Amino acid sequence: MSPGESQRSALIVAWRQEPGAVGPDVVRSLRRHFGLDTAAEIEPTDFFSLEGVAIRNDVIQFPVSRFYTCGQSGPLVFLSDAPEANHYEFLSKLLDTATDRFGVTELYTVGAVISAISHISPRRVFGIVNRPELIPRILESGVVTGMDYETPHGGGTSISNFLLWLAKVRGLAGCSLWVEIPFYLAATVDPMASKRMMEALDKGLHLNVDLRAMDIPIAETNQRLYELRTQNKEVARCLELLERGIMLSDEESRTLAAEVIRFLHRR
Amino acid sequence: MTSKGLRIYHRPELTAPEMIAAWPGIGNIGLIAVDTLRQTLHAESFAEIEPWRFFFPRGIVVEKGELTDLHFPRCRFFHTRIGQRDLIFFTGEEQPANDRKSYEMASLILDLCALLGCKRIYTAAAAVTGIHHTAKPRVWAVPNSEDLFPEIKQYPNTVLLSDLEDKGNGGNITGLNGLLLGVARSRGIRGICLLGEIPVYVSGLLTPYPKASRSILEVFGHILGIAPDLGRLDALEQEVDQNIAQFYDLLPAEMRARLDQLRPRSASGETPGGITEDDKRKILQDIEEYFKKGGKGD
pLDDT category, B277, cuts 50, 70, 90? Predict the structure, then answer.
């Protein structure tokens, strides 16, 4: 998308359960800047088990799949739980609504990739496109791309890549973006990853969003992790190893992740 | 050529073809049998079901940053001819995740059957029962039309459900191996499901059970009037037999003694060991209890 072109033709897709809460964080940031209006919704029937409800962080959840408009000219946003069944029909409905009702011509998905980095390391954003002509543009946004990859046997893939492929089949240009998340923040929040993702979207879509507000939760998380580090010698040792680029053992990784989650989730 | 949900690479010239279909299931008995027969007869792929409606992708292919392909489980149709007899094989690498999708897939397969003038369908699967792993598995044949009984009675080593004392003519076949024939019945296409016996204590081991596939292949050999090369099952069968024997040796002596009562006594391996149906039921109850407790005994 070139500067000045309406961003309304772009769709940003974010999933609620993305590691590090990157999806909801990005949407929160867009809401802060543009103010979001609910524009459409995909009914949960057929796509989610409604035999009961999930409880997350002590709170009852319910699957929601909503389109939001960002003011007059901002991008269209879709925030949803990942469907549990009938994925093809769900994604087709998503694309039908985006293209037929909102005239979307470009798709960006927001995702996270779990990495063995420390929380003070810079986060890279990786991009996979469904048309080669998008590559120069995402490179300009500071996104790492150009890699060759094939899922190893038994590896599986993500709903974002399924969507990207369906978009490709329909001739809709798209890119799935993946920001690095330290593995021990995957089950909680990683505001630094969210900011890095927003920076990539901001540059790629010329959103001109003021991202300074995102520095506050970054500072808070870093402060909390600093406190944990000073209180817990094992955590301090593991973080130091990561900062020196040394891989942790499975046992060390599990311990670090468990301690971080316990500490950050303490009410 | 693309029909809705089907991709047909080329349409072979067929005369009243018969279809043989299978999906993965317990012991992969049906799929191994059908795949072995398909390979033996050098059947060639001519169509497949577009998988994205039915399955979540297994993986991606990215080249220089561009998503170029997704890997899905494949559901393919193959064709071969034996003399004047046209045969279609269908093999699915995975079963759809829910009933609605399974029904849609069955309908799609039968749409192609109708297009090709298919007159008969066979599916193959597993029958979990109280046999011993050293016994030769029988084949349970379940037709979707009563007029197939006389034909089935000519099959070797085959029984109807009514021949089994504990089944009382009834039961169910889970998954597409059964559903396909149910939907076929509603469309007036006749078919038979061939179920190879697998010992109940082996069915939960997630191991293939080629011994039962062999029994099914022998029945297919009779139906088609051929002697398929079953030698390609030998290595797998030997390996699985060894693994099951090792598992068997790890069972508590008391449980093993109960299971030993199911051992065949005849040289052919076809006659169970002189126990009544009541004894067998009791043994199976004990086995079920044992495995419900996680194989830990009392």
Answer: low
User: In the beta sheet, which residues pair with residue B22?
Assistant: B91
Where is B280: in which H helix or E strand? Answer: helix B277-292
Q: Show the DSSP H helices in chain A as ranges.
A: 22-34, 87-96, 135-140, 159-170, 191-205, 215-231, 233-243, 250-264
CB contact B62 to A (< 8 Å): yes
**Cα–Cα distance for residue pair A55/B107, rounded to 1 Å:** 38
Which chain B residue has the Cα nearest residue A166? B52
Q: Nearest CA to B86 among B96, B78, B95?
A: B78
Q: How far apart are CA B202 and CA A173, in angstroms?
A: 50
Contact A172, A102 (CB under 8 A): no
CATH topology (fold) of B2-232: Rossmann fold (3.40.50)
Banded pLDDT at B254 (limits 50, 70, 90): confident
Whole-complex ipTM: 0.89
The whole-number mean pLDDT for each consecutive block of 10 residues of chain A, a chain of 267 residues, reads: 62 94 95 93 92 79 93 91 94 97 96 94 96 92 93 90 97 97 94 96 92 94 94 93 92 94 81
Mutation to test the A interface, candidates B4, B60, B61, most A Cβ within 10 Å: B60
Residues 6+ apart with CB under 8 A from A228: A235, A259, A260, A263
User: Which residues in chain A are closer than 8 Å to B59, comparing Cβ atoms?
Assistant: 150-153, 155-157
Contacts of B72 in chain A (CB under 8 A): none
How many helices and strands (H and E) does chain A possess? Answer: 8, 10
Alpha-carbon distance A244 to B5, whole Å? 53
Q: Is B57 on the interface with A (CB under 8 A)?
A: yes
Closest A-chain CA to B53: A88
How many angstroms separate the CA of residue A252 from the nearest CA in chain B?
A: 29
**Judging by DSSP bridges, how do beta strands B158-159 and B139-143 pair with one another?**
parallel
Exposure string over A120-138, b if 16+ CB within 10 A, otherwise e? eeebbbbbbbbbeebbebb
Q: Which residues of B touch A89 (CB under 8 A)?
A: 53
pTM value?
0.84
Nearest C-alpha neighbor of A161 from the set A215, A82, A256? A82
- Give the other-Cβ count within 10 Å of B277's Cβ: 12
Chain A contacts in chain B segment 111-130 (CB below 8 A): none
Chain A residue set in contact with B, beta carbons under 8 Å? 85-89, 127-132, 135, 145-153, 155-157, 161-162, 164-166, 168, 176
Count, residues in chain A: 267
Of A88, A135, A146, which has the smallest distance from its Cβ to B53's Cβ? A88
Indicate the residue of A85, A89, A161 with minimum beta-carbon distance to B60: A161
